[in-house]
Amino acid sequence: MLSNHLHNGLETARLVWSRLPNSEDGDFDAVGISGKSDGGRTESLDYEVIENFAYREEQANRGRLFVMYQVAVKWFFALLIGIGTGLAAVFINISVENFAGWKFSLTFAIIQKSYLAGFVVYILFNLLLVLSSVYIVTQFAPAAAGSGIPEIKGYLNGVDIHGILFFRTLIGKIFGSIGSVGGGLALGKEGPLVHTGACIASLLGQGGTTKYHLSSRWLQVFRTDRDRRDLVTCGCAAGVAAAFRAPVGGVLFALEEVTSWWRSQLMWRVFFTSAIVAVVVRTAMGWCKSGNCGHFGSGGFIIWDISGGQEDYSFQELLPMAVIGIIGGLLGALFNQLTLYLTSWRRNYLHKKGNRVKIIEACAISILTSTISFGLPLLRTCTPCPEVDPASGIECPRSPGMYGNYVKFYCSKDQEYNDLATIFFNTQDDAIRNLFSAKTLHEFSAQSLLTFLVMFYTLAVVTFGSAVPAGQFVPGIMIGSTYGRLVGMFVVNFYQKLNIEEGTYALLGAASFLGGSMRMTVSLCVIMVEITNNLKLLPLIMLVLLISKAVGDAFNEGLYEEQARLRGIPLLESKPKYEMRKMTAKEACGNRKVIDHTRGGGTLVIGLMLRRHSFSEFVKPVSSRGLSIEDIHLSSDDLEMYIDLAPFLNPSPYVVPEDMSLTKVYNLFRQLGLRHIFVVPHASRIIGLITRKDLLIEELSISGFNRKTQRRDKRTTRSAAAEDPLLDGLLHDNNSSSRSS
Amino acid sequence: MLSNHLHNGLETARLVWSRLPNSEDGDFDAVGISGKSDGGRTESLDYEVIENFAYREEQANRGRLFVMYQVAVKWFFALLIGIGTGLAAVFINISVENFAGWKFSLTFAIIQKSYLAGFVVYILFNLLLVLSSVYIVTQFAPAAAGSGIPEIKGYLNGVDIHGILFFRTLIGKIFGSIGSVGGGLALGKEGPLVHTGACIASLLGQGGTTKYHLSSRWLQVFRTDRDRRDLVTCGCAAGVAAAFRAPVGGVLFALEEVTSWWRSQLMWRVFFTSAIVAVVVRTAMGWCKSGNCGHFGSGGFIIWDISGGQEDYSFQELLPMAVIGIIGGLLGALFNQLTLYLTSWRRNYLHKKGNRVKIIEACAISILTSTISFGLPLLRTCTPCPEVDPASGIECPRSPGMYGNYVKFYCSKDQEYNDLATIFFNTQDDAIRNLFSAKTLHEFSAQSLLTFLVMFYTLAVVTFGSAVPAGQFVPGIMIGSTYGRLVGMFVVNFYQKLNIEEGTYALLGAASFLGGSMRMTVSLCVIMVEITNNLKLLPLIMLVLLISKAVGDAFNEGLYEEQARLRGIPLLESKPKYEMRKMTAKEACGNRKVIDHTRGGGTLVIGLMLRRHSFSEFVKPVSSRGLSIEDIHLSSDDLEMYIDLAPFLNPSPYVVPEDMSLTKVYNLFRQLGLRHIFVVPHASRIIGLITRKDLLIEELSISGFNRKTQRRDKRTTRSAAAEDPLLDGLLHDNNSSSRSS
What we know:
The structure is a homodimer. Chain A is mostly helical. In chain A, about 55% of the residues lie in helices and about 5% in strands. Chain A has a two-stranded parallel ribbon with strand order 1-6. A two-stranded antiparallel ribbon of chain A has the order 2-3. In chain A, helix 3 packs antiparallel against helix 7 and helix 4 packs antiparallel against helix 6 (about 165-180). Chains A, B: GO terms for molecular function: voltage-gated chloride channel activity.
């Protein structure tokens, strides 16, 4: 019934105002506000509007039972999101590790005979993988490029970017990131996994993808945008939980970084999803341990376990740690600024020239990366192996193709290793493991670390923004742990103490760079602890993060905020601008005319409805293309028709008085996740006042015990509520206040 | 100037309405709403009201520089709160451990000769400590009784309980909890530490305590209630961080459990406080390790380190773990219900009879607890020591007064130990350590565990609500780990696997009971991980928590919510009641008349101001007694005077239209932490509409680079904002819409 209305009416909603039969003064105008699409971006429906519709409809049609069904479906979907994202993460991990494993063992086998042949094979292998990735992305899923986190943040803030949650984006993201990460580029798979989780969640919420006829009416219980956003929040958490095997970190990431609000109901469901992911990933890894997954399977559930590292620290060490924090803040802010330059240049010049340029660019970066990571270690002279305690399990030099430190690469003597190759000519995971490793003092020379830092930083900046799925977490950890280990080396030399581990400083460096670039706090802290399994370093990680974030904030915004701003996504920062304090709501709403047609000199605001471009009962098809507005053809008769838009009208949108401080309006937007608010004149009369007590309705179905207790305990419990009984309010209308002249 | 007004005017504010010179129609009434005190509870000032005042005043007087000073002071206070709470926690810990250490070594020394003499000494020692505690609380600081968390939750929700943040409450809490915990009662020191942190924070925010002339005008920069609440949130986090040495858990506890909103600015500061606490506690513990703190000092930073426990688990184990979750939910819900009964009985009958009854009650509980914990192990026959690997460091039987398992108590033979005494005749910390311990299979018999479970559960229920500072965390962990270990024993016997550890099940049991009673999720999870240092069990802890919370929620509310309800504190739950969906704002506001005096038939709402009972520029003296309303004597001339209340008026309170769904109103209250909201008629005209883009004001001071980028990148970045320029809105007024008739 509704969809009939909509098929006929959505276009006309632009032209024809609804006549509402129950309006007092005869002929009023509904308010239509244009959600005009600009730059490929369409505005999403307002939360509250749809929420309100859905509630009304539910109440009318189905009532409490349907709500219970809906809750059950929500939890079932949270389960499915957990399983789906967990499996996607396992698939990506297995694929990447296997490609990388084949690549390195093949190259190692060939360089035993000829370094040149090995070099060529290495470059071609990488090029092929990167080419597959960039081809998938450019030809098939353009929205899969980049990390996707700024776009998801935008979506959860209420701004849709075209195609960001399509099924093809999901596919492009999964296979694209296998290619780009397996191809050895200076990027990670963590950001893309967050996007993958969000896509899975969104597709589930939609009941499948309409394009491939996979959708099911059975599961389309989510009428409200808010439910969809909640699902996507779950998906984000699942992505982080799967990427870092950090379930609590995932929950906090989703709530701190991605959404701007915090509801304990939602947290509860997000928590469940993360737990499911953890169980799925753990089970899969247990299965892989028996050798079912090729090169994958040697690692534990903790990605970079440094539980054997430094346990204690002296007060003097706080100074170098603070230095790490400052370096992290500076390098992180610089990274954000450089990538902002480069991305804006790419968007305005390079990527306008079409897909061929994007492909050539990615291939060029791949060749550059391969050349540097293979070539630079060749220039480095090898170091004699240190005396290694055989009980520690560390081998020097290690045999090729194995995980571990002390790789032998282009060394003339037997008992030598190439320290630069140990981190450069390696998968990023293993390089980080080596940098974090304890009991390997003086493994790296300062010269090698510095070379690596400069080259990798440059590569990470250049790679950022190319047309492949790309995360910034792992590159950030690489960069940070390199300078962290550098500082650690100086500390070891300077303080001459035995219990200082360079690996611990590498970990702090990683935390500081991520803090300086992404500006996260609690979630990053928890993620760092979960991926390294060393709780004892927690206070230090917290302090380093505090310093690096403070330093970074002095220069610019966080990486995701900068990128979102560049893409024109209107994210609201957590802190309102200082100038807002002096402004009123009236000043902010500008000179737009809201009510276009006034008739008979009198208008009354009936409510808020948004001009939409889509059908299907106002649920926006974010994941599938749906019907375009251009596809609907209306005859001139159609355009003459009136439709009653009352069912789609939000009769009680949020309002603020005209002279309210803009700071307060800002907080209202952020805390409630609003997209629109009406500015109204100072209220001419007051109907009443609601206090907290009015909202403490005792359910009639409350347990018998409670009622008894309360009756006995009347003085303390019920006295407050008894003063202003709710039922009285329901029975009597308050007409004592008069209307303004 | 303002305080002058207030001294004269506050009482009269009840009687005299302000004449506002700038009102349009001549003679209007300001709206005064009574925050009537009932049951010893006074309502606090509304957030937004005071916030608004403070902003205006700042802008007028001092501007940007003052705001910077304020921010600096906020961070400085966060530092002080961290140091203060950390030191308080260290002091309490050292005192408790030393009292307990003396007690047990003395008793052990005496029972070598006579068990009866030992028994008497043990009872007297405990009685003395409990007596000191209950005496301090009843005579000196009545608000220090109980855990304090429900009251702090209430305060942060906007409801003040008399005396909850006084200086004497702080003192009473610290010394009272030393007595009650040291005296061996079935309660913990964690809840009181949260309250301690909150008190420290509140006193700092007030600039000291006025009563003891310790206040300083220099630090009284916090005009706004919101700043005070933020400080108290920091204090709560610091309390948890100090109690469990769990900094991240503290942050999450403060944000999930205590406050109902989530602002990233606040989180950042809370995070800093927690980090400071961690550093302070760690430093103090390092200092104690060299033997400066008597019996305290043998433990590490992690309270119950079980990093050596079970690492892997099989699928079959998920079933017993789910059983643990269900038991936790059931026992937790039962605990909440029983304590609710008992507390309500105490409040209505027992404690009405005065302080003497409270003292006698606490002493009786102390004697009962001592008798049971000493007497029951006497009835238990000893078990022969198992063969212990000497390398594991476990001793059987351990020498008296030492920490560890296998205590020898009333055993006839040399190589025997008493398993019931190992957990009962011990400090709670050590008992938990023994229950969590790995590599001690079959240490406890099922009979002993069951006896302990029943007795301790009963004692915990009985002790709850007596007039001593009491936390429920540690008793909860005791109860949970006991049945967890019981289930673990059956699993070990049933599955006959070698890698199953009973201690791991004990940990899961503890998590399940806390989840079933307190209903926390993420914060509890993180706290459990931080106190046991075993990240690998995280997915299991999450699943157990999910089950136990779900089971518990089926029966009743969480412990703190139940207790808050009993005390008449109107906390808003996270989820609005189902009935609210069908209700409108108008229905909820009841039949109170808001505007009492109408003159000339016309009224106009000027704003919101609250009737207050305190002076000092509307900052409520929560921590000191301040001036009572009865102390102000006004002559009849005074009562004839008019004062201008305009400076204290919030001219733009939040408003909702009369037909808004109550669900939406509820969310507004919770998310913004409101206490009052006006219900107004449907807006007669609309001045404008604010969208997210209107709130994205570019600062003029933005970096040169950004502006350049944006100019170049106009199409993508600025186009959106350019459509509705804010400056236009500032220059032109929108008068196109007409007023309603």
